[in-house]
Each structure stands twice: as structure tokens, then as C-alpha cells.
Amino acid sequence: MAMAFLFAVVLSFFGIRAALAAHYVSLNTRAGFETAVRLEPSDPDMWYFLGRYWQFDTVEADTGRAIRTYRTSLGLNPLSADTWLDLASAYETQGEIDAARKAFLEAKRVYPVSAEVLWGYGNFLLRQNELESAFAEFRGAIDQDSQLGAEAVRICRHVEPDFDQILCRVFPPKAEAYLSAVWELMDEADTTDALKVWSKLFPLHPKLHSRDVIRLVEGLVRSQQTTEAARVWRQAVTLVDLPKLDDPAGSLMWDGGFETDVTGGGLAWRFGQYQNPAISYDHNVRHSGLRALRLDFDQKNTSGFVDVCQLVVVEPKTAYEFSAWLRTKDMAKEGGIFFRLVTPGPQASPVFETTKLLGTNEWTKVSIPWTSADESRSAQICLERLRAYDQHHGTTWVDDVSMLKLDSTTK
User: Fold this and answer.
1) Which end of the chain has fewer CB within 10 Å, C or N?
2) What's residue 132's pLDDT?
3) Going by DSSP bridges, is the β-strand pair 278-282/270-271 parallel, antiparallel, or unpaired?
4) Domains of the chain and any CATH numbers
């Protein structure tokens, strides 16, 4: 019984001492780290924390002391990859390159699949101008942590101007890594290299969110790469979990039946943020499919409306027919509802409009023929209503919007 009590006292003593050491470490001061080491001299972590203080403190950093402290920690636990990494960094700071290399290799030996270790060693090799070996380490790191793909793009482009080489030598064939690289390149407005990554990514058929697709295609549209934007959009939407679309074959309008909730950019529908008209979907009143777009106009709103738009990519000097099905109820007898087609750009272009519907109409097809100009690459199609002065609460339904090529005759 006495022995058990004594054992409990000893355990309590060591537990209190360990707790005190942890407390002094949390103070993040030189005195605190040194006290922790005195309380727990056989704990490698206490020496490691003290070593980091000597290495990174902004006031009294002492790399030599840091190295000696790290070596003490490793004498107690030679299997700490973190300690080997920091020791390698300290050696490199001192200009002891061979010692730094050995420390990095020890970290790899201890933890060969650590993304942090591989990444740190790769950066070391890059600083030694050993590009091939550095890229191999980066590839291994990205294989373990795909989010490093973005940082790899930033770093490697400084030393390798040929992005094809970076893509081949640095990136493992993993969708998450390619996605990370795509977003970095889009942030840099480098759509050319982003398309190269996309060509590697798409065959892997990753699951994408619609906002990812919109972000990528928006960048291509901004850079006026409309043909590429259309191609990527067609490919990317197949990777998103969407309901079946019944758009006519070859239609340039995407989701002309309003069957998906994908809106707000890319080559999808764009809805304004106004409260009036209220824009919703109607499953009960529809021309075909599962639902139609519904717009409810408040009787207090007499202003015009341009709120439902889509950008389409077209071929130059090509004849098309735009069509849509509209149904109206109690719409104002002024300011009818219609579609307008314009060519975006700094120069004014001819405006094409469908027939305007007023009052109440059953499902009615509206259409216009349109031939793109020599330089046309895109067209903007918007549902509009002119200003109305007679106050009515009206409703419009829209469904089965399409734009089809008529022929390839040039004019």
C-alpha cells in the first residue's frame, strides 16, 4: 500500500513538472523556454522549442545556438522530421550547405512521404540550382498535398520559362493538383497556361462545382478567348452534377429550358439582383421540360427591365435564328416584353429585337434571324421590357430558348 502511494506521488510530481514546462513554453519567451528545458531536460520537444527561439527570434536570434540546441533534441529523439528540417534550415543560413543537405536527407529518411519535408528539400535544391532534383521533390510533395500545386506554379515559373516543362516535370497526374494550378494561373490572368493545365485535367473527369466552371470560363471571356471559352464550357459542364438538358442539338443557348440552377456567369444565364420583377421557376406552367422561368412584375414598377441575359459564342459571318417561347398574363399594354440581341464591344452595333408581347398571351414563339458581322465572336441576348406607364401586376413565363445556325453562307 505504501509503495502504491509513493508511486502515485512520484507520478504526480512528474505530471506537475511536465505541466509547468508546458506552461513556460506557452509564454513564448527565452526565459520560458530555458525554464522548460531545466524542468524537463530529457524531453526533446523542450529543446526543440528553445532551438526555434534561437533560430527565429527577431531580437536575439543566434543560429549557432539554435544548431547546438537542435542537435541536443535530436540526441534524445532522432526521429523528429520537424527538428531535422529546422536544423537543415539553420545550417543553410550558416552557409554549411553539405550539413544542410544531410539534415534534409535525414528528414526524408525519417518521414519519406511528408509533403512538408519534400517541399522543403525541393526548395533547398532549387536554391542550389539543381532544378531536375528540385522538381522531382516538388512532384512528390504535390502528390501528397495537391494544394501545393498553386505555390509550385508561382515558384517554378521564376526558374523555368517553359510552362510545358513545369507541367510535365513538377505535376503528378492528379485532378486536385491541376485544379490548384488552374486557379493560380487564372488569378495571374494567364489563360494560355491555364488552358494547358485544363487539357491535362479534363481527361481525368473530376467532379466540379458550377462556380468553378464559371470562374474559369469568365476568365477566358475577359481575355476575349471566346472560342476556348465555349469549348471549355461544353467540357466542364459535363463534370458538374446537373439534371438532363433538352436543348436542341447545336443550340448556342445553354440551358434554354431553365432546368438547372447554374446562373451568374460564364455561358450560363445571368439574372439581375433587383427585387422587381421577382424571378423564379414555375413547375406548373411550362412549355416543355420540368419548369419554365417566371417573372412577376409589381404594379408599382413602371421602369424598363433588362434582367435575364446570356452571352453566346458565335462564328463570324454566319446566319442564325434565335427563338424563344413566351407566355404572358396581365402585362401592361405599354412596354411589351421581348428579347434583344446585340454584339458586345466598344463600337455601336445594330440591335435586333423579337416581337413585343403585351397583355395576356398563351405560349407564343418569338424569333428573329441574325447574321453575325465579319469580326463577331459573341452576342449578348437579353429579355427586356420597355418603360410602362399603366400600372399592372403582370407575369411572364419563358421557356425553350435556342439559337441555331441556319447555314454557313457568308455575306
Assistant:
1) N
2) 96
3) unpaired
4) 14-239 (1.25.40.10), 270-407 (2.60.120.260)
